[in-house]
From TrEMBL:
Organism this protein belongs to: Roseofilum reptotaenium AO1-A
Matching SUPFAM superfamilies: R3H domain (SSF82708)
Protein name per its UniProtKB record: R3H domain-containing protein
One GO MF term: RNA binding
Annotated R3H domain residues: 97-163
SMART domains, per the entry: R3H
Length: 167
C-alpha cells in the first residue's frame, strides 16, 4: 500500500479520535495477511486512555472497533482506482491480534471437523472482515471450500469438502 494512503489512514483515525475527545496517537504498521496481501494496521495508543474509553472504543465483541474499521476502509477507498486502494485494520490494546488468533483456531477446528466427518460446518458470530480472513486462511486447504450464506446480521460461513472430492 502506498505511504500516502497509510498516512491518510493514520490522519483520518487520529482526527476521528480527536473529535471524540480522545487525544491519542496512531501508529501505522504494514503486515502481510494470510492471503499474502498487505494490510496497514492502525494501532491506537492506549496509554492516554482510561479503561472505560478503551472499552467504548472496542465495544461489545469488537463492534465499535469493527465499525471504525469499516468506515475508514469505505471512506478512504471511495473513488480510488483499484491499484490505489488499501486495506486497514484498526487495533487497540491487542484486541485484533487476540481475536485473529481465536478466529484462526475456530477455522482450524472447522477444517479438522469437516475432514473427519465430511459434514458441513457452520461458523457463526463472525464479522465480515473475520469471514474474509477465514476464506483466505482456508484457501490453502485444497480439499475444502468456504461460502458465506445468509443476510446480515445473521450471515455465517460454511466450510465443506470440495464437491469433486466428496464420495
Amino acid at each position: 500500500m502506498k505511504e500516502t494512503m497509510q498516512k491518510r489512514g493514520q490522519e483520518w483515525l487520529e482526527n476521528l479520535l480527536k473529535k471524540m475527545g480522545l487525544a491519542t496517537a496512531v501508529r501505522v504498521e504494514v503486515i502481510e495477511g494470510w492471503s499474502g496481501q498487505e494490510t496497514s494496521w492502525l494501532t491506537i495508543d492506549p496509554s492516554p486512555l482510561n479503561t472505560s474509553q478503551i472499552e467504548q472504543l472496542v465495544g461489545t465483541g469488537g463492534e465499535s472497533l469493527d465499525a471504525i474499521q469499516y468506515l475508514i476502509n469505505a471512506i478512504l477507498n471511495l473513488g480510488q482506482d483499484r491499484e490505489e486502494q488499501g486495506s486497514f485494520t484498526v487495533e487497540l490494546n491487542g484486541y485484533r491480534h487476540q481475536r485473529q488468533q481465536e478466529v484462526q483456531k475456530m477455522a482450524e477446528v472447522a477444517a479438522y471437523t469437516v475432514r473427519q466427518t465430511a459434514v458441513e460446518f457452520e461458523m457463526k458470530a463472525l464479522s465480515s472482515a473475520e469471514r474474509r480472513e477465514v476464506h483466505q486462511f482456508l484457501q490453502s486447504y485444497e480439499d475444502l471450500e468456504t461460502e458465506s450464506v445468509g443476510k446480515e446480521p445473521h450471515r455465517c460461513l460454511i466450510v465443506r469438502v470440495r464437491p469433486q472430492l466428496r464420495e
